[in-house]
Amino acid sequence: MAKARPRHRKSSKLTRRAGRRRPSLPHNFGFLLHPMSLEDVAKKYKIATKVSPKVVGTVLKRRRPFVIARISGVKSLTGVRAPGRFGVVPLLPEQFLTLDEDFVIDKVVKACKVCAKDGARIVGLGAFNALVGDGGRAVAQRAGVPVTTGNTYTVAVALEATRKAAEEMAIDLGSSTVAVVGATGSIGGLCARALAPEVGRMVLLGRNAERLADVAKHVRALAAGDVTTGTDVRSGVRQADVIVTVTGAAGAVIEPEDIRPGAVVCDVARPRDVSEKVAASRDDVLVIDGGIVEVPGNVNFHVDIGLPKGMALACMAETMILALEGRYENFTLGKEISIERMTEIEELAKVHGFKMAGFRSFERALDAADISLIKSNATRRLARV
After folding, report:
1. Structural domain of residue 215, as residue ranges?
2. Counting beta carbons within 10 angstroms of the beta carbon of residue 340, is it exposed (0 to 12), middle (13 to 18) or buried (19 or more)?
3. Distant-in-sequence, close-in-space partners of 120: CB < 8 Å, separation ≥ 6
4. How many of the other CB atoms lie within 10 Å of CB of 368?
């Protein structure tokens, strides 16, 4: 007698079909990238090297956001894992600044939704994605998934790097002039407030004098020394022993001739605020890439993000930390970030095993010998002045 067919076969087929979709797993995150240059576009679309930049820009405007790679190996010290994915907003930095803001916000929102559909329960807004719509607030209202700019942990890591770099260069912050470039932004403003009690003098630099004056009021309430403001960035940084720079400019704002011998510059901005000419012509200053951390576990991004294996930008790391912690909330949005919230994300980073990476300068690792040579070069140059 023939065997009866299993009664569950039909549902089994449905199960197999559903299994082809990526489930929304716990501790799952997304992070939004965008091309930083035409060279980045050419990595995926070779034809970008054969047509005009204007044509490339037009094509990017029409391109829908997409997932470019999935992230594996992020593992907390607690044993929790957090798979992720990189979503791409196909716009160049200058397009974020020049296109209609509603159009750009719509692109970023769609990218968040693409990541959410792929399983993300929180999405980080990287680079210029974090600037639009009042620092991500407009995106958060429409994304359908919690978002964060990652700026809180970025500040924490940048400040740690700046303090350590100043110590290595024998700079006493308490008697030094510190310049914050981009002080009216969320990262720059928090950097200024956090450093104000520690430094001899602070120079706040930005494009908008009225907004600078407002920031200065808050900084002066915390400052140990004098606080001044200026809209001439290059003139302002020439006064400084330590510079923290984090503007939203599409190109360099600090050139080789702007930096004092022996100074420390922490460049948190992407694209960079410090001209690459500095790397070639100023061997007497310490320029460090701000906001770079080591990720716990055996992380594999499956795409080149311009950093060595196991390292990530702090804004990415904040998104990972929140996913590992199960904190699916709009953690960092807008221009106001509190010191209390920065302390909170620092503690969570320690719990899960994230820490500041060693010093890097223009994508190159620096060791003690490199820093010693910079100090010697600075001493010789100052002796000739």
Report:
1. 153-292+359-384
2. exposed
3. 28, 29, 30, 84, 85, 145
4. 9
Give one DSSP letter per residue of 22-54, joined into a string. Answer: PP--TT-EEEEE--SSHHHHHHH-GGGGTS-HH
- What does the pLDDT read at residue 46? 81
What pLDDT is stored for residue 45 in this prediction? 80
CA 119 vs CA 125, 145, 176, 318: distances in Å: 16, 10, 48, 18
CB crowding 299-310: b at 16 or more within 10 Å, else e: bebeeebebeeb
Report the phi/psi class of residue 274: left, alpha or beta, with left for phi > 0 and alpha for psi in -120 to 50: beta
The answer to the question of residue 67 being in a domain is no
pLDDT greater at residue 5 or residue 197: 197
Query: Tell me, what's the pLDDT at 25?
Result: 56
Q: State mean pLDDT over 117-134.
A: 95
Report if residue 49 sits inside a domain.
no
Query: How many domains, the chain?
Result: 1
Contacts of the segment 43-50: beta carbons below 8 A, 24+ positions apart: 43/304, 44/68
What residues contact 164, with CB distance under 8 A and at least 6 apart? 356, 359
Instruction: Give the predicted TM-score (pTM) of the model.
Output: 0.87
- Band the pLDDT of 48: cuts 50, 70, 90: confident
The token pair that represents 137 in the structure block:
């607030």
pLDDT confidence band for 43 (50 / 70 / 90): confident
Q: Is residue 338 part of a domain?
A: no
**Cα–Cα distance, 318 to 74 (Å, whole number):** 12
Render pLDDT for 165-178 as a digit per residue (tens, 0 to 9).
Answer: 999 999 999 999 99
The Cα-based distances of 191 to 17, 97, 159, 187 in angstroms read 51, 24, 7, 6
Tokens representing residue 41 in the block: 């576009």
User: Is the pLDDT score of 104 beyond 90?
Assistant: yes
Residues ≥6 apart with Cβ < 8 Å to 38: 48, 49, 53, 56, 92
CATH number at residue 260: 3.40.50.720
Does residue 322 sit within a domain? Answer: no
